[in-house]
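step: validate -> pass
step: tokenize input -> pass
step: predict -> running
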Amino acid sequence: MEVGLEGRRLVLLFLTSSCSGCRPLWAGPGSRWPDKVLLVTPSPSTENAREVAALAPAGCDVLMSSEAWHAFGVTAAPWFAVVAGGLITAEGAAPAAWAQVVDRLDAGPG
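step: predict -> pass
step: emit ->
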């Protein structure tokens, strides 16, 4: 699986519609959705596409792909990975607050 990054840093947020810890992240940052954040849910065969569409804030990009979850070794949500220059530069349990997600965008190489 490839995500076109065009040399930029991207934060992948792995979320599910049923995850209570994901709710603050589904709610979004309260302003324009950052273009460096991609929400990743399991495939429609596992995740309810209608619920995802209802939860996803306007302007955000959503990828419904169990393949992505497997490729990044994600076993639980919420999870994040920062990708820069084709490399994973950080990953782990996703921050609970949007301010921390933005910090991830600004941190590290890339």
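step: describe -> The chain has a mean pLDDT of 83.
step: cleanup -> pass
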